[in-house]
Automatic annotation (TrEMBL):
The lineage of its organism: Bacteria, Pseudomonadati, Pseudomonadota, Betaproteobacteria, Burkholderiales. The keyword Repeat applies. This is Tetratricopeptide repeat protein 38 family protein. Keywords: Repeat, TPR repeat. InterPro entries: TTC38.
């Protein structure tokens, strides 16, 4: 029998292992009551050594005198049991920890996880020891040592993390790297999940603002948005769908989505429809105006919208696209004073930003290498 991470389990029934897995999962995300859950596992299978080991860690890592005594009692019981090599390795760490030798215990778990990289109990116990010892380097390196053994394909944040990395490369003017990340990470597999389509739309829009050619990437993205942009479900999605429709030149879809967003019956607004009316419509209309080169209208819609955009979600990084579009509209509209003022806002926060310095230089009529 194995636990959720694939480590072998001995002397335990399926029911006991289920309670054990629940207890470890609760510990992993610091919620619920792992003590009572692992207690049930031990009650069902008294010879379940790994459950006793986990219980001892929970008690000892709590750093409370009474619980520390209970942990020592558990350790004494464990020393009477027949243990596997992995379980015996845990015992060495527990023995040292409960003697107050935290650094030595953490070192044992360093080596332990080299041999058992999927042992999440050892990993988290060691990580807490690193925290208690203020060992910042090992807080990082303990995870780095075993990370290649863990799957990255099922990480729900994988695409969004790559999106954030792409922003750094864009900041450095490495548009080819950004496009490579887009193709190989953000849109690898052509996911139709709305959360990933949002990242894709925002990335292509940012590149387009800088004058980077994105080829037919807009077309594939616009196709995927068809199932999600209905003007009612989540208005943040509609805004990003509009970006894709504009980029793909699908004016019919733009107008349909815009009409759906405006189709709100007076007096019957849901909260989502309030967001649409108050926040999304100014953004959508501003982005449409920008793409169609009506820069003055874009400025009028987006200048005020940027202050209320956090009313419907998204991170600061995601909503930054509003300010980027606004300042680009100001430059293209021939309003250098406004463009300089907006650039100064950004430079006050990030004075060394290539993008921000580029905006300021362009607002003053100067060409900047690497900035379009």
């Amino acid at each position: 029998m194995k636990d959720l991470q694939g480590n072998r389990i001995f002397q335990a029934s399926a029911e006991a292992v289920d309670y054990y897995n629940q207890a470890v999962s609760a510990f992993n995300i610091y919620t619920g009551d792992p003590f009572s859950l692992v207690g049930k596992a031990v009650e069902i299978s008294p010879d379940f050594a790994m459950a006793h080991i986990f219980k001892a860690y929970l008690l000892g890592l709590a750093t409370e005198p009474v619980l520390n005594g209970y942990a020592k009692d558990t350790l004494r019981h464990l020393k009477t049991m027949h243990l596997s090599d992995r379980e015996a390795s845990h015992l060495g760490a527990l023995d040292l920890m409960l003697k107050g030798e935290w650094t030595a215990a953490a070192l044992v778990l360093d080596i332990h996880n080299c041999n058992y990289p999927l042992d999440i109990v050892a990993l988290q116990a060691g990580h807490l020891m690193d925290f208690y010892r203020a060992n910042a380097r090992n807080l990082r390196d303990r995870l780095a040592r075993i990370l290649p053994y863990w799957s990255g394909n099922d990480n729900f944040f994988k695409v969004h993390n790559w999106w954030h990395r792409a922003l750094y490369h864009q900041e450095l003017g490495q548009e080819n790297v950004v496009l490579s990340i887009y193709d190989n990470q953000i849109r690898h597999g052509n996911s139709t999940a709305a959360l990933e389509l949002v990242d894709a739309s925002a990335m292509l829009w940012r590149l387009s603002l800088e004058g980077v050619g994105v080829g037919d990437r807009w077309d594939e993205l616009a196709d995927c948005w068809q199932a999600h942009a209905d003007g009612h479900s989540y208005t943040f999605n509609d805004w990003h769908a509009i970006m894709a429709y504009l980029g793909a030149g699908r004016d019919i879809d733009v107008e349909k989505n815009l009409k759906d967003c405006k189709n709100i019956k007076p007096g019957l607004e849901s909260e989502m429809q309030q967001w649409t009316r108050q926040t999304t419509l100014p953004l959508i209309e501003g982005f449409i105006a920008f793409w169609r080169k009506d820069y003055q209208t874009a400025i009028e819609q987006l200048y005020g919208a940027r202050f209320i955009a956090n009313s419907f979600g998204g991170s600061h990084a995601q909503r930054d696209i509003i300010d980027l579009t606004l300042i680009e509209a100001s430059i293209r509209a021939g309003q250098p004073e406004l463009a300089q003022a907006l650039a100064n806002e950004r430079l006050a926060l990030k004075p060394n930003s290539r993008l921000n310095r580029g905006f300021l230089a362009r607002s003053k009529g100067r060409a900047v290498s690497g900035v379009h």
